[in-house]
Amino acid sequence: MSMRNVEFINFPKQSGFMKKGLLLFVLFCIGTCTNVLWAQKKVSGVVMDQSANLPLIGCNVVEKGTTNGTVTDLDGNYTLEVPENAILQFSFLGMTTVEEPVNDRTVINVDMFSDTQKIEEVVVTAMGIQRKAKSLTYATQQVAGQELTRAKDANLINALQGKAAGMLISPNATGAGGSSKIILRGNKSAYGNNQPLIVIDGVPMNSPETTQLAGEYEGRDGGDALGNLNPDDIASMNVLKGASAAALYGSMAANGVIMITTKKGREGAARVDFSSNITLESPMSLPKLQGRYGAVKVGDQLNNMSWGDKVADNDNHAMDNVNDFYRTGSTFINSVTINGGTEKVQSFMSYANTTAFGIMPTNDFQRHNMSTRETFNLFGDRLTIDASLSYISQKGTNRPHGGTYINPLTGLYTFPVNGDFGYYKDNFEKFNEDRNLMAHNWYLPDDDFSANPYWILNRIKSTERRDRVMASASAKFKITDWLNVQGRLSVDNTFDRFERKWHATTTATWAPGGNGRYRQERFDAKQFYGDLMLNFNKTWNEKWELNASLGTSFQDNKVQNVILDSDKLGLMEANFFVPENINGNGNQRTSNPRKRLNSVFGTVQFGYNGMIYLDVTGRNDWSSALAFTDNFSYFYPSFGLTALLNEMIPMTDKINLLKIRGSYSIVGNDVPAYITHPMDGINLGGLEPNTKEPFTEMKPEKMHSMEFGLDLTMLDNRLNFDITYYKTNNKNQYFSISSPLASGYDSYYINAGNIQNQGFEASINYRWDFAEDWSWKPEFNISYNQNKIKELTDQLKNGVSLGSGAGLNFKLVEGGSYGDIYGKVAERDENGAFMLDKDGKLVISTDERHLGNVNPNWQLGWGNTFTYKDFSLYFLIDGKIGGNVASQTQSYLDAYGVTEATADARDDGGVDLGNGQKMDAQTFYTSTAGKEGAKDLYVYSATNFRLRELSLGYTFRNLLGASKNLNLSFVARNLFFIYKDAPTDPDMSVSTNNGWKGFDSFGLPATRSYGINLKVTF
Fold first, then answer.
1. Of 756, 761, 734, 766, which Cα lies nearest the Cα of 747?
2. DSSP H helical ranges for 801-941
3. Do 863 and 995 belong to one domain?
4. Is the domain of 58 the same as that of 169?
5. What CA–CA distance (Å, rounded) separates 363 from 458?
6. Is 601 contained in some domain?
7. CA-CA distance, 761 to 781, in Å (whole number)?
8. Do 255 and 356 belong to one domain?
9. Quick one: 683 and 777 in the same domain?
10. CA 651, 652, 654, 656: dihedral to nearest 10 degrees?
């Protein structure tokens, strides 16, 4: 309010005293009223795009009736000084204007909703094509960027757990920076890739398959692609779960697509955002080891199994050894972003540093992320050019791997309690006078199963490095208001280097020759991608809509993989780790696969009166992997239909949207290079002849997919619900079959099989402002998937093994499901009692039986956000119902007699066989446990529920100036299990390879983490 709005009273002529008195009175009243009206207060809050669940950037916030206002920042925050009786007006193009009276409030948070009478909400779909959200004929689910940064993880994939229906995430038990695997709507391919395509700003990301552990023997975790990214660069993720949604990407996207939209510059003064996340990690779900019984001692030599007498000291030294071995892990993630620009040019730059110290000593990880993005709007905004460049450099030291061999956990967990572990910790090596070097020191000097854990940590060290460069550029020219042309090019190159050194006197099984062993790996993966599209969008008579795109694309992938290893003849000189010191040229393997995919595609969407939409797409791929066949060219279509019932039928105004949708598609799934025409290899400097028969009749995998769904939005868009039923059948799988001896080959390929997935997904969210300054936003998602091997072939009557080891076999069997577990069992009678043979020994089956399946039937996530003024509380509970895990760890530890279960059985006089008889504990466990035994006893339910994520924070508004806020949060992940049956974390696996989910083999325990997250805006 200004003084010019106050009208002064014209006083009649009166006495001077009266005149002065009245004038003073009026001025006093005016001054009092002015003080009241001009009493200013700071009001702040967050403006959200309710439909996308994202902060709304650039929303106008104005004191109604004045020019006093501001706009929201990149996090949707605003701060404004206004009188107490002011009314705040929130407006944004295409959204309904909201008015909020200030009264005595200092925090006003607002949800903005799409105004369907103005501009329809637009979303980005496959190939970066924009579509009205209401017109989509398939299911998508969006994850806001803040979901990835609220409680950060060194691998951002893990931050997605529980936040999208139908998304199964399996982390590797491999410590700091370890890989994680994503599966959407179940596994579909026996030997092909089952993970979704990652797309960044419309461009596919190169995600080559890396080295992974394949069983119980030595191996390593080669990392993943998505986990390399900086979460602070990501604005949002859109999960296209079905093949229909991703059909335009063709064979690259048969398993769905995760579309990432990165942050870019905005018009205005430069803005700096800094975040720092510090967390501490401690192990959870450790094995339960006993401290009552030791190993038999012969002279000074301890036996390797703890089936000896009770120890005099009942303190549990075993768990002390374990707890002392693990350290408190820590992760430090610091990130800074700068953005700003003019009307014509906007810039975004970021840098992030991730440093992690794992719970296993000597396991360290560091990553640097640098990126820049420039956007140019030229020729009156007719031409838009967008260019980005990212560089990632990471290094890991001693990343742990699962498996029983060359693993410090085997020696740690099986060490007898009557031994002096502290001595071997302090003296993991001792001087060997004969060889004049430090030698491995362990109570079992010749054992290849266990070694001194501290020798492995310090004298079998590994180092891995990754450098990655991603560059992309796009240009979009607006020919008319309804026609534009767009082109994109990208380069995505990854350079991996790995080195492992085994010092002299390491067990000869793993380092032959006695002088040590040296291994080098070089893995270079390069991708060059480009596309060109013509986009048409036009409406006639305000009723008929036509949206069409026609385009072409190419993708060229090259891999160069070279492995040099001295595992055959060892080293010439002890502990001299260079290639020139390898005996006899070493074991060298080289592979250089290359594949090119050329494509044309098109999509047409017809709309009528804003109530019904029909989608038709088609794509044709030409794949070099299918060269030398008649099927190198393959076409696949998709069809979709959606109807907005709320636009067709009169309904209560409480319903904002009621939509039914359905779609059907056929999508190819490409195959690896050189199956149709295998190539000779190079090994030990010589030619290694190919042993695979050429497969000139090969066909690409074809996935037939359909889905039906319903979307409902009501109560002023505060309640959102969607549900989808889907069914996929993946046919023409490729399998390897043993060849007849006379063929000259050892195997050949065939097309066969039909793997079916069907199920449903549902999600619901609601925002409830249940009291002044209080709000609660619950989000719940649930999914169910049923997998079935509908068909294999007569040549595979015994099934197809996806992986086997330690008496377990993960295989596909017709009529079964992907992920079925097979193994021998302890035979039981009709009453469930263990059966004995005539000699009183347990009867173990000679054949493999079905023991379970590694995949859950149900998945659910329940997230809750509470806000009170500037306080916020978030927690996420997620769970899985059904499925199984097989624990080789527990089986081995029982066989060695080091678990609480074995000690309890000894104290109870034996193991109850279920028929009134007891068997000596050592006899029982050495018969049923270990490498070979009754595997049914070590398959557990994978059902579990946990408090996955917690965040409690406070925002200090305008601490550093107007709209310059500081947010401080306590964050935690994996705090505790609400329910769990398995001895380890059932979500973790030994490897991301097909077939190895649900297999625990001396992997690192899961960790709980807790710490502080700081965000500052300058």
1. 734
2. 888-895, 900-907, 921-928
3. yes
4. no
5. 11
6. yes
7. 8
8. yes
9. yes
10. 20
What is the per-residue pLDDT across 576-595, written as a single tens digit (0 to 9) for each? 999 999 988 778 888 888 99
- The single residue listed with the structure tokens 């993880």 is 153
What the block records as the tokens of 203 is 């461009």
pLDDT digits (tens, 9 = 90+) for 269-317: 888 999 999 999 999 989 999 999 999 988 888 888 999 999 876 566 7
What are the Cα distances from residue 783, in Å, to 119, 710, 819?
A: 33, 15, 18
* Pair 908, 917: CB distance under 8 Å: no
What backbone phi and psi angles, to 5 degrees, belong to 145? -60, -30
Per DSSP, helices labelled H in 298-358 are: 317-325
Residue 266 has pLDDT above 70, yes or no: yes
Q: For the residues 368-376, what does the mean pLDDT come to?
A: 97
Euclidean distance between CA atoms 967 and 182, whole angstroms:
31
Tell me what the pLDDT averaged over the chain comes to. 88
DSSP β-ladder status, 197-200 and 257-262: parallel
Q: How far is 60 from 93, CA to CA, in rounded Å?
A: 9
- Does residue 893 sit within a domain? no
What is the Cα–Cα distance from 893 to 902, expressed in whole angstroms? 9
Which is nearest to 306 in space by CA: 318, 319, 321?
318
Token couple for 94: 């295409």
Pair 314, 245: CB distance under 8 Å: no
Domain harbouring 88, CATH code: 2.60.40.10
For residue 540, what are its two tokens?
């006639």
pLDDT digits (tens, 9 = 90+) for 516-547: 999 999 999 999 999 999 999 999 988 999 99
Q: How far is CA 990 from CA 158, 179, 259, 474, in A?
A: 16, 10, 28, 40
Residue found under tokens 């050892």: 746
CATH code, domain with 777: 2.40.170.20
Answer yes or no: are the C-beta atoms of 180 and 155 closer than 8 Å.
yes
Tell me if 936 is assigned to some domain. Answer: no
H helix and E strand count, the chain = 10, 56
Amino acid at 162: G
- Spatial strand order of the sheet with 808-812 comes to 800-805, 808-812, 820-823, 849-853
Let me know: does 949 contact 926? Beta carbons within 8 Å.
no
Q: Is 191 helix (H, G, I), strand (E, B) or coil?
A: coil
Give the pLDDT mean for 850-867. 96
What is the separation of C-alpha 32 from the centre of its chain, rounded to a whole number of angstroms? 61
Cβ contacts of residue 177 below 8 Å, gap of 6+? 154, 155, 223, 227, 356, 365, 367, 394, 396, 399
Which range marks the domain in which residue 106 is found? 3-112
Backbone φ and ψ for 213, nearest 5 degrees, come out as -65, 135
Give every CB contact of residue 873 below 8 A, 6+ residues apart in sequence: 864, 865, 866, 867, 951, 952, 953
In sequence order, the 6+-apart residues with CB closer than 8 A to the CB of 124 are: 130, 202, 238, 259, 261
Task: Go through the chain and tell me how many residues it has.
Answer: 1018
Residue 321 carries which DSSP code? H
Do 482 and 433 share a structural domain?
yes
Contact partners, residue 426, CB within 8 Å, separation at least 6: none
Indicate the number of domains in the chain.
Answer: 2
8 Å CB contact between 88 and 24: no
b/e map 378-387, b = 16+ CB within 10 Å: eeeeeebebe
DSSP letter (8 states) at residue 7 = P
Where does 518-578 have alpha helices with state H? none
| Residue 711 DSSP SS3 | strand
